[in-house]
Model the fold of this input.
Amino acid sequence: MTENILIPFSLHDTRLRGRLVRLTSVVDDILHRHAYPPPVSELLGEMLVVVALLSANLKQEGIFTLEVRGPGAVRLMVADAVYGGEIRGYAELREGAVIPAADGVRSPRDLLGAEAYLAITIDLGGGAQRYQGMVALEGDSLAEALYAYFRDSVQLPADLTLAIGRVSTDGATRWRAAGLMLERLPQAHPTEVSEEAEQEDHWHYARVMLATVKPQEMLDPDLPPHDLLYRLFHEQGVVVYPDRSIRSGCRCSRRRILEVLTSMPQGEREAMVMDGVVRVHCQFCNNEESFTPSEIGV
Done:
């Protein structure tokens, strides 16, 4: 399996671990549900890669959400992933916003405004306390903003690189996206100064190699992701673990929407009836469900 996958890996005899994500039909399907300008699709595609990368840390049922908000032409962008590898996302543009359709990922602040911020939420459900971290949307790319988040909010040395583009294969041009992330784990027990210096050298070298990877390599349909990992990290010794599949999916359903509607106060349900019907639109999957007043108890 080389498409729509997450590959966990570690570097031999180091405290370094990482993950590689490559999305093909999943990101293409999600982005084609909406007629976003290309710069918006590109940033949302990167966010989908990020939630696939970071949600891999979920050890139980839960939802990992990445959100950016700001006062710019794009008001809001959200991507989330559930335990098991199902992702979704959408963007909300301000009414009347004009975004030039030129290709090329721009600074997120170009789309969301200089005062934009980034939020990460982990909701494990079942009464567990929800975690949320929030930082200013720094840097000229989503990867730079996340690097600042890891540094300032999590105090976990981590680095990543992201790539997205439209690639022609089999006579068709489709969206592809990929991401590669490294993490440096803390030592479990006190170590000698010389050992810690050696681990620092491993971390520096791995980051240097990460910086050499080109977007074209990450998206290349003829370059298997395992070969890419070997190309980058074979000198340190890369240990690859079983692949995990990534899928697109929305948690909305007619039954769940109906449950939400019938739980609302009577007056609110009555106000939702227009032309003899209640319509509910899901921003994620862009589908619409219709209900008669009697179905929602009006």
Observations:
- The mean pLDDT is 89.
- The chain has two domains: 5-248, 254-296.
- The first strand starts at residue 5 and ends at 11.
- The domain at 254-296 is CATH 3.90.1280.10 (CBS domain Like).
